[in-house]
What does this fold into?
Amino acid sequence: MNRTAVLKHLGSTCLTAAFLVSGAASAANFSFTGNFNDHNNVQLFNFSVGAPSNVTLRTFSYAGGVNSAGVTIARGGFDPILALFNSTGALVNQNDDGGSNVPADSVTGAHFDTFLQSVLGTGNYTVSVMDFANFAVGPNLSNGFTNGALSPGFIDATGNQRDNHWAFDVLNVNSAVVTNPVPEPESYAMMLAGLGLLGFIARRRKSQDA
It folds into this structure.
């Protein structure tokens, strides 16, 4: 499938987060849940690794399951993709389907949740969660995403109707947080226009007071 790469905004989400401290003194497991407002939304997370560690990134939203915080996640969410970036924003890896590492959905039989496990060095990382087939363009986060999700109604590749919820775990890291979404292009333009207007008013008042 040919996809046009476009730099896109991050979607706003409704988020909850919890963490469970693991056996390692400095490492912890973090669980996040939320909802997409649009099928081309992208949610970013920042996490840090204090020492070389075997880090696991995985979703539960497609087939459901119990996350690291002990919360049961319902099946039925969209088909997720994740992309991992290092501290410079370079794409490290990308995962679409977790295969045998994730359960099969009870309706479609598909193993469409993500699972990415690798030894990561000390440092800070960014990981994105998005709906199939909205892949990271690479080689850098700044290159954006393909904006290629299959359907505005969250219908997956099997033709099955899904919903907009996701659940995501970041395991064996020192910290993990949800990042604030970047404003939509229209909102960003309005914000810049507003800042320009405030600057103009301030300069005008200054000239009148002189």
The longest helix spans residues 185-209. Confidence is low (pLDDT under 50) at residues 1-25, 182-192.
